Amino acid sequence: MKVLVIGANGKVGKHIINKLNDSEHKPYAMVRDTDQIPHFEELGVATVLGDLEKDFEHAFHGKDAVIFAAGSGPHTGADKTIVIDQEGAIKAADFAKANGVKRYMMLSSIGADRPEEAPDDFKYYLYAKHRADEYVKSTELDYTIVRPGGLTNEKGIGKVDLQKRTGHGEIPREDVAATLVHLLSVNESVHESYDLISGEKPLNKLFSD
User: Fold this and answer.
1) Which pLDDT belongs to residue 74?
2) Could you give the C-alpha distances from 101 to 41, 62, 86, 95, 191, in angstroms and in order?
3) pLDDT per residue as tens digits for the range 91-139
């Protein structure tokens, strides 16, 4: 599949590009600034300029799938979080529908399915993620929503705990990326939402008994 990666220049996004580059799929890195292009050109990865705060529908032309991995981060304030994490993801879903891009992978956050339980200073972030997730679920897209726990920069181990609901935990960004890319081609994950933390199950055994 031709896969548009939104948030390709982010910490998880760069791992996603690498994992897609090593797969049978062809990644397209959506970047906001031209100075981000050389990094991907060195990898042999096609880029498309697009800004989540503007019209980026052109990025979806000719694509088969999208991985939404953009995020303002939990420390940028509510305004930017709503613009990027919430409205950016909702616009991306609309553009996917309008351009016949059926497969939609959403990188969310653990707790986004229960934002009311979050600490007060984190509630706005999870509510933004929650609204975006619920919007995607209301569409006819072939979505998969992945809600990772605390993100680390440790090297990925390729073993995870992927369930509808897990306890809180951490996971390397590399393993989050690997999971999203793996699930892209797993039919059982369509129309499903999962929590994701480090665990004992290899990715290729996730849906086996």
Assistant:
1) 60
2) 24, 8, 19, 8, 15
3) 999 999 999 999 999 999 999 999 999 998 889 999 999 999 999 999 9
Question: CB-based contacts of 53: which residues, under 8 Å, 6+ apart?
Answer: 83, 84, 88
Whether 125 sits among the annotated catalytic residues: the reply is yes
| Single-letter amino acid, residue 191 | H
Among 28, 104, 125, 194, which one carries the catalytic annotation? 125
Dihedral sign for Cα atoms in the order 57, 61, 64, 66: negative
Asked if residue 162 lies in contact with residue 200, where contact means CB atoms within 8 angstroms, the answer is no
CA–CA dist 104, 102 (Å, integer): 6
For residue 129, the surrounding DSSP H or E stretch is helix 120-138
pLDDT digits over 43-55, tens only? 999 999 999 999 9
Q: What is the enclosing helix (H) or strand (E) of 176?
A: helix 173-183
Q: Roughly how many angstroms between the first and final C-alpha of the chain, as a whole number?
A: 28
Nearest to 206 by CA among 182, 190, 171: 182
Can you say how many angstroms the Cα of residue 201 is from the centroid of all Cα atoms in its chain?
21
